[in-house]
Every structure is written in structure tokens, then in C-alpha cells.
Amino acid sequence: MNGFDTAWLPPEAFGPLGARRTLIRGSGPLVGTVRDEVARACERFGGEVVRDGSYDLLLEVTDGGLGAEEFTCAREGGTTTVTASNGHGLLYGLFHVVRLGAQAFTGGWPREVHRPATELRMLDHWDNVAVHPVMGQVERGYAGGSLFWREGRAREDFARVRAYGRLLAACGINAVCVNNVNVHAVEARLLTDRIGEVAAIADVLRPYGVRTHLAVTFAAPVVLGGLSTADPLEPAVREWWAAAARTVYAAVPDFGGFVVKADSEGQPGPFTYGRSHADGANMLAAALAPHGGTVHWRAFVYDHRQDWRDRTTDRARAAYDHFAPLDGEFAAGAVLQVKHGPMDFQVREPVSPVLGAMPRTRLAVEVQATQEYTGQQRHVCWLGPMWSEVLGFRPEGESGPSVGELARELVAVSNAGDDPFWTGHPLAQANLYTFGRLAWRPDADPYRVLDEWIGLTFPSAPARLVEGLHAVLDGSWRTYEKYTAPLGVGFMVQSGHHYGPSVDGYEYSPWGTYHFADRDGIGVDRSAATGTGYAAQYAEPWSGVYESAGTCPDELLLFFHHVPYGHVLSSGRTVIQHIYDTRFDGVAEAEKARRVWAGLVDLVEPAWHARVAERFEEQVRGAREWRDQVNSYFLRKSGVPDAHGRLIH
Ligand code: GCW
Q1: Residue 588 belongs to a domain
Q2: Which ranges constitute the DSSP H helices of 21-154?
Q3: Range of the domain at 631
Q4: Is the CB–ligand 1 distance for residue 182 below 6 Å?
Q5: Is the same domain home to 230 and 334?
């Protein structure tokens, strides 16, 4: 390994392409990137970048009426042709050819048009410039330090950032926000006197078609500008932001825009001035509009200081209650960035009702690749199937559009850092890759995407390795769910760092995260009839489906209902027996995955194999801890013995 892992772009992935004769037509910086990629592959594999004469592959910028990121690919008469209307599309076309491997030069097929379904496919980095005393450098980061920042400033050596940009382009990601949405004092200044550091990063990402975005604090006019207010309707404040945007664009001409976490978990926002979130977002959209930028305004607004005794406040309702009434009020340059579920990236949540309730708002769906609540990159948890379920959900039922169709943009909190394997757990690379490909095509089959990832990461993998990787990854999210959170209950984690079990870890906290287990039953009543009314935030058919415990899907039962332990699920099992069984099954599955991985030792590069093997030890230990704590807790609460008489402590 040359300092860091090649992930899904090992040199061998360029073998078929690099052995051929390629003609490249077009000019501009991204065509330059394409040319460099092909030239490098040819140097290694004996092919040639030709200027004329015969060729096997034509990569051509033409005026073919294609959109900015689109490309076509065809193969006729022994020649493969990729066309695009600019360098960006051509770069995506090149990586398409890489993905096809030898197949790109075999047989023939008519012209196919490839275009992304979403305009923006972004990674948000929760990276701090300075190391934060509690959160460390990367908030919820499980892959070492930041790729961008080191020792309080932008890195001097950008080799790693360049390699990152390349990996992102190869899976279709076109935007990165380079700092944490919780904007601390040092990071606030990236907007003003430290914009040069952002510009340096943008320069490195630009050749891969990745635009740079910045998280900013809503209080910037006060904390940086010395104004007495940050009121979004105050002319001096609006002018301050307009001037700030001008400075940013002078340094970064293709700057993507701002990301804002306002009135959320202590961050400042428009509520301080009695203004709405549309007022706040629109002010920033107005500042960015003359330059073509957008503001990503996060919908993660809720009361994080609630009284656990108060059963009427329901955190799950918060985003909808705050934002749905504002539909139609957001400016064209404002994107509302909505977490995929109503709570906070738990292992299982329903899809956020906000996504079906704001047809006149530009929506981005936010998912979490960094595994805060899904094993922190010590456990294998491939999130493709979860994201795919979210994107396939149809808020108005079968005849209506899917979330993937409603979302104009997809955003993931990145799971990458300066760890040699990028993601701490090497298999977590699959999450990053899968996110990019699902963002490009939300209706893609995640298991096919995983095949692609395997094909690229392990070129010419024998069938035993391909099968082994599928065996370890395919069901890993459900395995994780089995030993952790039953039936849609969340937050049974240790408080603060969120790793490992603590059934009551958040039960009496101010964060709005309760399961209400007592001796008789468990779950949150979110029905309209007797509960918090959250179920009514959905349109039919879902409001009806979720309203009744009889029709609510098993996996979400305790999210929507408080039921007795003896309640019989549609699976035929009681809730308590389900809790016991799934814990035992989850541990058995984790142990099996560990065995499968051990059996691949001869097929995977030793350092790679060893890192995963080491993580599996921790995963199995952790899974047993989850099983024993959760089962013991519920045995003690309910007094109901396990029907199979297994050991519960
Ligand atoms: O999941 C929670 C995390 C916070 C995070 C917040 C958010 C960046 O625990 O660390 O803050 O969500 O999404 O803003």
C-alpha cells in the first residue's frame, strides 16, 4: 500500500482500457483529467493515446445535445465510443468504461444514454479544522483525522485530497462540504479571512468535477462582522452576507454554496429574531444567487432540551411541524436538506414525512454514511439496502412518486478520513461507493452496485471471493439491526459517543429519545387516536397503515405503538420472543460472517484482510454484549422467560 489504499480504483481496474488504443477529442480541464487517466493506464498496460489512425476507444466531446453530466456509450464495428457535451460528462463516461472492464471491448451494443437522476450528489464532512475538545477532529468520524485539515489549517500535501476527488468522481459524487455543520469559532472564519484555504481545496477537487461547499454559522454577521444582529430581514445583515458571498466567489469562482444547521442543537438561527426558517434560508439564497450558488438548509430542527416527563412533545414530529407549513416559501436557490428519517439516523426508522409533504420545495435527502448509530465502522454494516428502501418509499402509495423521484439531490455524511483504508473498516468503503451510485440512480439495485464495487476493488476476484464478500455484506444491515434495536426502537446506545448498548442510555435524557419500556410493554404511541399524532403526518395510505398496530409493519411497530410484550407480530411471534430470538440470531450471523471472512485469507491482500479480521473480533464481542444486555433487560422487566430456555443473564 502506497500510504493509502486504492479502494475502488486499483491500477488493475484500468487494465482493459490501458491495453487499448484510445483517441480523445475535446479540450478543457476535465478533458485534461480524462487524458491523464488514460495516459497513465496506457503507460502501465501497454496501450496508447493516439492522435489519429485506428483506435479501440473514442472519448469525444461533441455537441450532441446532452446535459452537463450526461454521456453516451456505444460499441460498433470493434470500436467503443463515449460522447459527452463537456469534460464532466466525459469523465463520467471514462469511469463507466473502467467499470465495464473487459466487457467494454467485447461484442457490440447500440448507443446508451447515461444521465444522473439527481442534480447534486454531495458528501458532507463533519470535519473540524481545529481538534474539538469533545468531538475530536471529525465529529462522528471513525476513520482517523480529516482529509482536508491538519494542525489547525488546510493540509499542505493534497495528494490524499486529489485521490479522494478521483474516487468520488468514479462513483458519481459532484459536491463536497468541507467542514462540520456545527460551526465552531475557528471554522466560522473559513467564510472570510480563511477562504484561501477553502480555495486551495477547491482547486484540487475541481479537476474531478467536484464542487466545494462550506458550512457557515448563521451568526456570522455578529461573530465575524461585528454587527449587533443576524436578523435575516435587517438590510445591514443582508448586505453583510452579499459581501461575504462576493469575497467567496472571488476566491472560488465555482463555489457550490453554503450548508446551514440553524436553530438545531444549540446552533444559532432565525428563531432568535422571531423570523422563519424560510426567511433565514432565503436571505442566504439571495446572497448566493448572483453567483449561481445554493444554500443547503437543514431541516434537523427539534427541541433538544425537552422534559422526559412530558409525553406530548414528540421529537419525531418536529421537522414536519417546523417545515411543512413553509412549503412554497423557499427561494429557488434554497434546498431543504432533510434527514431520511424523522429522528436521527437510527438503524431503523420510517421515512421522514417531510419528504412527501413539500412538493413546492427543492428537497435533498440526507443519509449517514458515517456509522454513528450503525456500528461506528467497527461493525460491518452495508447500508445499501436501507438507503434503497428509503429511496423506493412512495409517500402517497403505489401510484405516487418515490422518494428517489421527489428528491432533487442526495447528501451523505461522509465516512472517510485520513485512515490508510479511508473508512476505518475497509468494508465500509462499500458504503461510500454505494451512496454515490444510488445518488446517481436512486432506483438502482443495491446488490448490483455491490457487484460493481467488488469488481472494481478486487479485480479478477475468483468466485469464492465474490460470494464471500456478498455473504459478509448483503445482510449485514439486518444482522446489525437484529442484535441492536428491535422493531424500530432507537437510541438504546451509550450516551454521548453512541457506541455499544445501554437500553436506558437515553431514557431520561432531554433529547426526546424514549422507548417507555415498563413491566407490561414497550414502544412509543405515535398514533393520532391515542398518541402523539405523528402517524397523521403521512398521507394515505401510510397514515392509515401506521395508525393501527394491526397494520403497522413489524419492523416499525415499536416506533409507532406501545404494545404489551405478549403482542403477536404478523410474523406470528410475540414481541418479547422476537426480542430474544433476533438477539440470538444476530450474534450467530455476526459469528458466521467472521468465519466466512477468515476463510478468505488467501484471497485478500494481507493488511486489508487483517484489518477486517480485527474489526470482526470487536463486532462479535459487541454483538454478544448487545444480546446479553438487551435480553437481560427485557427478561427482568417483563418476567417472561425465553420459550427456548436459552441463557439470559
Ligand atoms: O446525529 C446527530 C449527531 C451530531 C450531529 C447531528 C446533526 C453534526 O449526534 O453529532 O451534529 O446529528 O446531524 O447535526
Answers
A1: yes
A2: 29-45, 87-100
A3: 481-524+562-638
A4: yes
A5: yes
